[in-house]
Automatic annotation (TrEMBL):
InterPro entries: FAD-bd_FR_type, FNR_nucleotide-bd, OxRdtase_FAD/NAD-bd, Riboflavin_synthase-like_b-brl. Pfam families: NAD_binding_1. Residues 32-139 form the FAD-binding FR-type domain. It comes from Ensete ventricosum. GO terms for molecular function: oxidoreductase activity. Gene3D superfamilies: Nucleotide-binding domain of ferredoxin-NADP reductase (FNR) module (3.40.50.80), Translation factors (2.40.30.10). This is FAD-binding FR-type domain-containing protein.
């Protein structure tokens, strides 16, 4: 069974209900224990202050710190006065938890939300963290690098958060021939981590910023990440390609494949351009909704 089939499997109704029950039980198990921890940083991460850096000191929660083992894992964060917790992907790599006893996040400030309250707090304020949730990226599925030389990464907005963890953990990108990050935002004022791009490039990741509403001085890619990818001339071999999608739902589901691509690649019944990237033996996907990050 291909990775796409595993991801899109449709279960009969009784089995589907059973699977949802098991998932709910797993989530409950992950959130049975909450740990109190102080904030060590709350600061704007973008020029327009719609994205924020948030760091939490987990030195008093060593079991929680060591349970974060893979980029792409996430947790829930509770803030005093909020009606419900926020689901946050961890932006810092697992090594930060081990060496600095710290979790770092990139969050989008939405008025009236739990994250809005979080961004109004400061260093030393106490929040509550659930247990670590999810398995994260299964990087071992695209090893060794010479067997999977191409990795395509697509992120929008605060969806770049777990992508930072993936890149900075290291997946031997510099041993692969074609690792591209298409990172989309409205403009540079809304784009986080620009100060990290040079380090990511040095690690072997070709960073391609894509702006949907740039100013007249912008000479890079324009539009949306999926259209920027479609403009690229190099058609990849899906059997040796990995793909990571993290951001707006439209980015991961709406992109229809044009006829020339249908002639050159094996298309899934959904006939979407990203689907053929998932048909390869070593592909994996994280499809996170930007508004929750």
């Amino acid at each position: 069974m291909s990775p796409l089939s595993r991801l899109r499997l449709r279960l009969p109704a009784p089995l589907h209900r059973r699977a949802l029950t098991a998932l709910a039980a797993a989530v409950q198990h992950d959130t049975d224990t909450w740990s109190q921890a102080p904030l060590s940083l709350v600061a704007p991460a973008s020029a327009d202050a719609t994205l924020f850096h948030v760091a939490v000191d987990v030195s008093d929660a060593p079991d929680l710190a060591v349970s974060y083992t893979a980029p792409g894992q996430y947790l829930q964060l509770r803030v005093p006065g909020a009606d419900k917790p926020a689901f946050l992907a961890i932006a810092s790599p697992p090594s930060f938890a081990a060496s600095r006893c710290e979790f770092q996040f990139l969050v989008k400030r939405v008025p009236g939300s739990t994250v809005d309250l979080l961004c109004g707090l400061g260093r030393g304020d106490i929040v509550e963290l659930s247990g670590i949730m999810g398995r994260g990226f299964r990087v071992e599925e695209i090893s060794p690098p010479d067997a999977f030389p191409s990795v395509l990464i697509f992120a929008t907005g605060s969806g770049i958060s777990p992508i930072r963890s993936l890149i900075e953990l290291g997946f031997r990108a510099n041993e692969r021939s074609n690792v591209r990050l298409y990172y989309g935002a409205r403009n540079l004022q809304k784009m986080a981590y620009q100060e990290r791009f040079k380090d990511w490039e040095y690690a072997g990741v070709n960073v391609i910023p894509v702006l949907s509403q740039p100013d007249e001085r912008w000479s890079g890619e324009r539009g949306y990440v999926q259209t920027a990818f479609l403009r690229a001339k190099h058609i990849l071999n899906p059997s040796t390609t990995g793909a990571v999608l993290c951001g707006h739902k439209q980015m991961t589901e709406v992109c229809e494949a044009p006829k020339p691509l249908q002639d050159e690649v094996r298309m899934d019944q959904t006939n979407r351009v990203f689907c053929w990237l998932l048909r390869g033996v070593g592909c994996w996907v994280l499809d996170q909704q930007d508004e929750h990050m």
